[in-house]
Amino acid sequence: MDKLLITGGRPLHGAVPISGAKNAALPVMAATLLAPGVHRLRNVPRLRDTRTFAKVLELLGAKVSFDGNLCSIDSTGVNSVEAPYELVKTMRASIYVLAPLLARFGAARVSLPGGCAWGPRPVNLHLAGLQAMGAALDIDHGYIVGRNVKLKGARFGFDVVSVGATAQLMMAAVLAEGTTVLENVAVEPDVTALGDVLVACGARIEGLGTRQLTIQGVTALRPIDTTIIPDRIEAATFAAAAAMTGGCLKLERVVAAHFEAALRKLEEAGSTIERAIDAVTVTGPARPKAVNVVTQPFPGFATDMQAQMIAVCAIADGTSVIEDTVYLDRFTHVPELARMGASIELKGNVAVVKGVERLSGAQVMATDLRASASLVLAGLAAQGETLIDRIYHLDRGYEALEQKLGALGARIQRVN
Ligand code: UD1
User: Which of 47, 74, 179, 259 is such that its CA lies 20 to 30 A from the CA of 319?
Assistant: First the structure.
């Protein structure tokens, strides 16, 4: 199994191109099922998750090809409505095929994703929303099964702001009969970008970027031709790398507004940040200052940056308090960071981080995607060598991470 070997203690310098967003690419890949035809998606990151999603689409009968970051999907010949457990269990986002299959074929058989490393992660809102739109869904041997479904416009309010359920219901509503009103929707850039893509294909959606969407169903959509938005979490992770190593990084091809909450916290921690139209330059302090963070749905501080921010706070001057209100159990990085000398006390969903002057390199284990990123950051700032095991998690969500870091002066290599 591949591992990452990092020799820490070098400030990172230079310019780094930020890739397309995984979490924006996956729902757009699912949306290709809504319209039979040949779809073109540019700036799709080369990641294990985009490849897994391609496999899901191929099993349904689509033809998928990659040419660098261009992904072409021919969804004309889709002839199956089943997304099997073997694939869904490796990537929860596979559940995005549910609404498009119901909308196009009136039927679907999609495995329930189950729990994950951060706790239960239910899909009740996806199901309740589709049921409100007239889909009779059964749970049969671990599968969500819909037959003879005719989606109809409805009014549905989310109890909890959910990225996945908002994207799911948007894809259901665009081809439903009548008008759908969705309340308390997610406004993450990935969700808004999906809405923009659907509108460009002929969907009628009002209110994108606000908490209420009004969607008039249409009878057909045109194939997608789009460019995936930049990955705000990858960008914020590199920003944290500059902050932690006392370096200076220019993040290229980014939208600062998409990760403004993270940038503000890094500024509060002592970084200097320059925002340009499509670039952000982050200069790290000699040592970060302690900051308090509460994760929230967008535009708040992203839960997907919580682990990386704990790594920053681990070497900060002072005590930081970091609370995750979105995923209460998402702290598997804490014991691994402790192996590197971090002083972190976990009280439920709150981490109290007493900054230490220096972390020391150690053998650690990656437990999920963003937890792995926090270990990479810690390794870059630590004294000595850090060996990170199970880095397949990183390959799910960071395109060419070690090449990008290596080009910025990090001593990092993949070892077997
Ligand atoms: C997406 C992101 C993930 C990110 C998360 C929150 C993708 C592929 N993944 O995950 O990286 O961490 O948003 O920003 O885009 N919930 C329910 N019932 C549901 C659905 C969600 O109670 O049916 C709860 C969840 O337990 C969680 C909260 O809603 O507490 C937010 O989850 P959600 O936004 O749905 O996360 P995902 O879409 O799965």
Answer: 259
| Topology (CATH level 3) of domain 3-18+230-415 | UDP-n-acetylglucosamine1-carboxyvinyl-transferase; Chain (3.65.10)
Please answer whether residues 291 and 316 qualify as being in contact, where contact means their C-beta atoms are separated by less than 8 angstroms.
yes
Whole-number Å distance, alpha carbon 167 to ligand 1 midpoint, is 11
| Cβ of 96 less than 6 Å from ligand 1 | no
Three-class SS of 186-243: CCCHHHHHHHHHHHHCCCEEECCCCCEEEEECCCCCCCCEEECCECHHHHHHHHHHHH
Q: According to the model, what pLDDT value does residue 416 have?
A: 86
CATH code linked to domain 22-227 = 3.65.10.10
From the CB of residue 407, how many other CB atoms can be counted at a distance below 10 Å?
14
Nearest CA to ligand 1 atom 39: 164
Q: How far apart are CA 280 and CA 255, in angstroms?
A: 8
pTM (2 decimals)?
A: 0.97
For 162-174, what is each residue's pLDDT tens digit? 999 999 999 999 9
261-299 residue pLDDT tens: 999 999 999 999 999 999 999 999 999 999 999 999 999
3-7 and 411-415 beta bridge pairing: antiparallel
**298 CA closest ligand 1 atom index:** 14
Q: Smallest Cα–Cα separation from 266: which of 286, 285, 247? A: 285
Question: Phi and psi of 300, rounded to 5°?
Answer: -75, -175
User: What tens digit of pLDDT does each residue of 246-260 get?
Assistant: 999 999 999 999 999
Residue 259 near residue 239, CB atoms below 8 Å = yes
Per CATH, 3-18+230-415 and 22-227 having the same topology is answered yes
**Catalytic residue numbers?**
116
- Atom 26 (ligand 1): residue with closest C-alpha? 121
Q: How far apart are CA 361 and CA 142, in angstroms?
A: 43
Query: Using an 8 Å Cβ cutoff, are 313 and 301 in contact?
Result: no
Q: Is 216 exposed, middle or buried (0-12, 13-18, 19+ CB in 10 A)?
A: middle
- DSSP-assigned letters across all residues of 330-348: --THHHHHHHTT-EEEEET
Q: Where are the domains of the chain?
A: 3-18+230-415, 22-227
Centre of ligand 1 to C-alpha 240, Å, is 23
Q: Which atom of ligand 1 is nearest to the CA of 326?
A: 30
In percent, how much of the chain has pLDDT > 70?
98
Length of the chain equals: 416
